[in-house]
Amino acid sequence: MPKARSPQYPAIGLKEAVDKVAAVYAEDYQNEIPRSVAAGHMGYLSLNGKSLGVLSAVLKFGLLEGRGNATRVSDLAVAIIAHPPGSPERAAALKEAAGRPELFNELDLRFQGGKASDQAIRSFLLTQKFIPTAADAVIRSYRETKQLVEAESGGYNVDHLPEVRPMSQPNFQEASARSGTFPPLAQPGLNRQTITATVLAEKGVSQTSISIQDDRVELFAVLYDQEGAQKVIDRLNAVKAMLPEKPTKEAAN
């Protein structure tokens, strides 16, 4: 008897998909890489049933793109990663990603944005040839996705934002638009250019703006844990060799 199969659907919710693509971006930015490398950045040892399912889900949300064995982090994913939680730009990008999977879009239209019981959605999925376990998985990832979009659409919570003074430098999108992809910080010939890096910790996002200008490096960082701090240290070590051993006369003044 052939094994029962269900129609394709995102195996994980949008929150986990964002976490997974953020891990890829932290290592390879928007460089085109093999799927096996992307899976490795996500924490998987090889391409197998689990990792392929996660890669497929991230692709369905539009956070990865590519054909065949090649893949890269999409501009939509960068729009989510580059903006802080609760910001209008991030909320809009999350809403767009949530509507990318065809199945989720169909559920939104049929059940008025998910305003239905799990049992009603499950019954519909069973009539669409989903096996019961797959239907339950769809409902779980669909609900998690809707909850994330709703939570992020609430805007900033000023009581939980740190008091920081942003750098008067071009933002991440401007730097990315100039280059098309995000270059490594150690790349030569970066004088008078501003680079904004987003260093991602496993729990929370550490946003780090690093501006390289002739004889100095200017740094602005928002850190959430020790792992994020260590990644900032690693970034600074990468640009250390580009600095003079001693301050120039202009810098000293």
What does this entry show, briefly?
The protein is an alpha+beta fold and 253 residues long. The protein contains 11 helices and 6 strands. A hairpin with a 4-residue loop joins β2 and β3.
- Tally of separate helices: 11
Overall shape: globular
Question: Would you tell me the structural class of the helices and strands?
Answer: alpha+beta
Strand arrangement within the widest β-sheet reads: 1-3-2
Number of strand segments = 6
What's the overall average pLDDT, rounded? 75
What report would you give on this structure?
The protein is an alpha+beta fold. It folds into 2 domains: 14-152, no CATH class; 172-252, no CATH class. It has 11 helices and 6 strands. It has helices spanning 14-28, 35-41, 49-60, 75-82, 88-98, 102-110, 118-127, 132-152, 172-179, 226-240, 249-252, and strands at residues 33-34, 64-65, 70-73, 193-200, 205-213, 216-222. The strands form 2 sheets. Strands 1-3-2 form a 3-stranded antiparallel sheet. Helix 4 runs antiparallel to helix 5 (88-98). The longest helix has 21 residues, at 132-152. The protein starts with 13 loop residues before the first helix and ends with a helix. The model is unreliable at 155-206 (pLDDT under 50).
